[in-house]
Design brief:
Radius of gyration: 20 Å
Shape: elongated
Helix content: 25-40%
Structural class: alpha/beta
Order of helices and strands: EEEEHEHHEEEEEEHEHHHEE
Strand content: 15-25%
Largest sheet: 7 strands, mixed
Length: about 300
Amino acid sequence: MSAELAFNRSVDVDYGVAEEVAPGVRRIVANNPGPYTFLGTNTYIVGTDDVAIIDPGPVDDAHLESMAQATRGRRVSHILITHSHRDHCDGALPLQQHLGGKIVAFGPTGTQRGAVAPGLGDGFVDSAFTPDIPVSDGDTIKGRGFTLDVLHMPGHAPDHLCFALVGKRTVFTGDHVMGWNTTVIAPPEGSMADFLASLERLAQRHDKVFFPGHGGRIETPRRVVRAYMTHRIWREQTILACIDEGVGTIPAIVARLYGGLDADLKVAAALSVLAHLEFLIARGLVSAEGSNDGLSAFYIRAASGAGASAAS
């Protein structure tokens, strides 16, 4: 089973320019590049009469002006938020104040948000974010000239939504599936069990193209989703192999599996390992010793799961 994923990182970006990426769909990339945002957050403008703006990005005056220029002469009916991470949602209120439109998102989850790693906390999440219109799986958002189905796809975040453009076999995937890198699953914000279940749902669809929250379009959606799932199963097996060899702490597992990773990304790698371990514990394959803090615990094979094989 291969660990390699074929990522497309050859994406040209002209910040502030509304590029048509499909009929009736334009993309503006926010100028907020970074280790978790790649070249920046993708903002999508959907529709030709009324328009919906998906993920207005961070608070940024230049990006706001670009959205205003791109929608001049059209009514912004909806501002859609895939999830309440600040690089996707912080620009929603300034955009609404400037252009109008109802803010649409999943809404409060009633669950613990943020990540357990030092220095992260809930700083990347707006845990108080509340939309004008809360939506859930199976809802539909309509404007003059567009219809979007709501898909609740938790895993990266408990409130994560994808939006499917009806009749176009096109899905705006936010951070659930990205073409430039694997998705960060950072407990308690992220859940590996939810993430894999959501991927399985996407794999059953017959979409033609994904437009992610970061990076370029994904032309082979089902193949990429299956590759994501295979990669996660392979990663789980490598973690179990570490534990079987006595490598039972998360720092040691990260050093073994991600030795060449940039230092800026090793916190995310540790959280990803923790997410896998939580999923393994839930299935009775692994147990934790010595600490209530998942990042500091020592992990061993659970007696009931010593001979069990990894599962998706």
